[in-house]
Description:
By secondary structure, chain A is of the alpha+beta class.
Amino acid sequence: MNKTVAVLGLAVYASYLVYRTLFTINTHALGFSLLVYCAEVHGFFSLFFYFFQTWEQRGRVVPAPPDDVSVDVFITTYNEDVDLLRQTVRAAMAMDYLHTTYILDDGRRPEVKTLAEELGCRYVTRATNEHAKAGNWNNAFRQTSGALIATFDADHVPRADFLTRTLGFFRDPKVALVQVPQRYHNVDSLQHRVNWKFRRMYTEQDVFFNLVCPGKDHWNAAFFCGTGAVLRREALEKRGGLETGSITEDMHTSLVLHGDGWKSVYLDELLVTGLAPMDFASFQAQRLRWAEGNLKIVRSINPITYPGLTLPQRICYGASMYHWTVGAPKLIFYLAPPWILFTGSYPIANFGPTFLYVYGAFLASLVISYKVLSRGSGRLIMDELFNMATAFTLNQAVKRMIFGRGRPSTFVVTDKRGGKTRSVKEVLPHYALVAFSLLALEWSVLSLWFGVVDDRFGIALAAFWTVYNLVLMSFVIEMALRPVQKRQACRLTAALPVSVPGLTLTSEPEVGMTANLSAAGCELLWPRPLPVRSTWPLSIALGAHVFECRGEVTAAFRRRKGAWFAHGVRFVGLEQEETDFLNDALFNMIVPRLFDQLSQPSLISRGWRRIVKQFTTDYTRSRRSLVSVPVRLEFAHVSFVTMMHDISATGFGVIIPGPVPVGASVTMTVLGAKPWSVDASVARCQAMPASLPTFQTWLAGLQVDRTTQASIHERVLKVAA
Amino acid sequence: MSFRQFVIVVAVLGCLEVAVFDWRFHDLVYLTRPVTVLAHESVERFVPQAEHALSRPTLTRARLETIAQTARTRNDHGLAIRALARLAQEYPSDGSVHLRLADALREVGRIEEAERAYRQAIAATERGRR
Lengths: 721, 130
């Protein structure tokens, strides 16, 4: 079905272009008309490349890793925080499978050398920074001998099973590269949108990593993305490591490897998570580097003519480069409606209802084919928003590719630790576009009012597109000017029970919960307000572990979450070991749980599945809503405080630190300002995602007596956060 | 630039734009007034504005009608005929425009042209009926 829709979508687009060519080129405003026409032709090729790359998705079966292969792990760093680097190095060293970990420090920092000595990994540095990241990598490449090399950026924390899941592919002697997707755990970043109600997360790179990469893999054209990959030394030895001819050494190297006849693999599994840029300036700097690097590759190594590539590989690489030229056509589409309002000249000849019907049909086919081929990943409005956010940056990259930038391209390390200032400079072109659009609207109102023009239909249509673009642009500006993130450590959404030893409320100890957590602090939800600057001994339940520390209340927020008072808490006096333990818990328990919670299919997919289920199965599980309520469970004379995870029409899901047999009776006490208890039985028990066994938890489905369900639901929802 | 500064800048630009619009289309702005008001304006004021408007390559029907009606009210037949001729040229299928043009031509004694305009009015009306 997907392929049929793709072909039909392209056929409709081609027909539309033929119609535009034959009947709608406006000779009275030829330049303007041709500009818009060219932008539409660009869109056709974009769609063709997208459909080609997503034509078929390759799912991979993971082979067992080879028994005796030497593996080196490279962690490249330049100026990143040592605390950030520490967790990456520790996670890399803790990976299953025998390997040697190297810190590749281009910053020549003594504290990083000390870190390497403390953790027991190797430290590699060099006297210069020639060729930036690729040069750094190649320097280590020359000094090491591992047959396979796993590579990570300083902020990309691998899971323990990263190597065991990826090395098996190297059983095929022609495989030179295994790449896994880049996921980002700072879900409050600029490029994330989280809908907790529907448990969905949108990331700006979803389409690339969920669709395009598996699609490229089908054509043996998956490429190295700079981090979260394993490379074969033998494949790189011929050229002395990574290619250094561009600032996007990853794609350049992949192209050369494919040209040499090597294979690549894309494994679509969550095996490493990193940090996405937190502010608009860092985001734009990253996109400019990617765009400039990818476009400039054409100068040194043209995928159309480079020997050794297959035709699909040429198309896939061409598509990757073509993607970065989308800025110019987008800008034409943003400027065309206000230009119509200002001048009254149209890019379309015979602009009237007939054109509108044709355009409407074309637009509908475009949206439907994109949605179908996106398989639930693409979100048109969000994609359009980010296109608008990056349009000017991409144009700058194209300009640099064509005219050069007057000095050699430099590798700019993306800042992942939050903005230092609001990103006003980067958003000035958007401001200008907003001003231009507003003035065009005003001009059109004046023109209509004073009888300069009387084409109400055309003006209304142009005004509609102008307002649509204005709304999107205002979101882009809001994105750029959102309050600066000042926290140094990334806070992860995590509901964990917290108690203060000794504090009791009626007969139960007073219990609160975290709303989010980092190794430096948390947002604490407590049943009553706590005084600011007071310090409390806190016990945080992390699966089977209880983490004890002292927390200082730094802020008491006005907002309340359900029946809970929110507080900002900073952990004080933590030893390095305690910080490491917290980080381990965050990356091995909270992060996998977070991605699992937010991986629900799209609303359309869910609706369709529900309809299908109505006809194909006798039993469907009732819908679950996420809730956060601390509860005490008593089971076989064991009592522990934990969290309720979800609520449904038939019962509750509760997180427990160990498995419980199905059918067992438990007593659940819902904690809060007024604790109360209910008897329940375990209906199901399943392991929750975790990347280390020590942080494994289970989700127990509890069923209560049907006659009391309704009242219990209401009581739970009253105290849920 | 803060949001507040941006709003101020856009507001200033908006005011400037109004001024530019008034300078660029002062004749059309003037002709927005009702015909009854324009009919009592002085010749020195009305005629140059109407002439300027008629010299524009494109003019909306509403403004042409204003000029034609005002000119007829003021017994300025020459101006009225030029406005109606332009209307007839831009809306050839509208029989009433040709009829009004014919009447205006007849009133100033340009009988042959009036007759031609009457014929066009009849033809346009018949085409409309068909």
